[in-house]
Amino acid sequence: KNTRNMESMDEINLTQLTDYLGYQLRQAQTASFRELSAPFRELNVTPGEFSLMTIFKLNPGIRQTDLLRIYQLDKSTMSVAVKRLVGRGLVCQDQKPDDRRFHALSLTLRGRKLLAAATELVDAQERLMEKALAGIDRDLVMEALRRIVDELRQD
After folding, report:
1. Runs of H (alpha helix) within the chain
2. What is the mean pLDDT of each run of 10 residues along the chain (155 residues)?
3. Which of 15, 40, 116, 138 is most enclosed, with most CB atoms within 10 A?
4. Is the pTM of this model over 0.85?
5. Cβ contacts of residue 88 below 8 Å, gap of 6+?
6. What phi-psi label fits residue 135: left (phi over 0), alpha (psi between -120 and 50 degrees) or beta?
7. How many angstroms separate the CA atoms of 53 and 122, rounded?
8. Which of 38, 52, 61, 53 shows the shortest CA–CA distance to 111?
């Protein structure tokens, strides 16, 4: 057997991986999710639910079909996520008066309160990330990330 007992992560050679932009993006996302996981768990909210509720806050009355275009998910996956939020009393579904086939999705008072608490956590994490980027133009970083998303988007 040719196995080595690695005493610490410092002994593992990741050089080729750490030179990949995609690897570093994934590591940053994983670190971000990991840091928010415990406080989000206390609020009983997931990062995906936070994202959805933020969209509902900014776009009251949005239709589920619009969400499908934004997230590029299949209908059943999105339906489950929306039903979970509705079932917890965080989101309400109202039939649109101009088209009764579609439901307008909006946050309830309970949903707005939960979103406010979750947003405080995310804002605190944003401040930590900005501190880590001290001396680097935040707008430049955001523009670079948006370019990557646009280039790799599969519309």
Report:
1. 15-18, 21-43, 47-58, 64-71, 75-87, 109-132, 138-152
2. 56 88 95 94 94 94 88 83 94 76 88 98 95 93 94 81
3. 40
4. no
5. 44
6. left
7. 13
8. 53
Residue 115: exposure state from Cβ atoms within 10 A (0-12, 13-18, ≥19): buried
**Do residues 24 and 132 touch, judged by C-beta distance below 8 A?**
no
Check residue 7 and report its DSSP letter: S
CA separation for the pair 61, 18 (Å, rounded): 43
Look at residue 104 and give its three-state secondary structure: strand
Query: Would you mind telling me the total number of residues written for the chain in this entry?
Result: 155
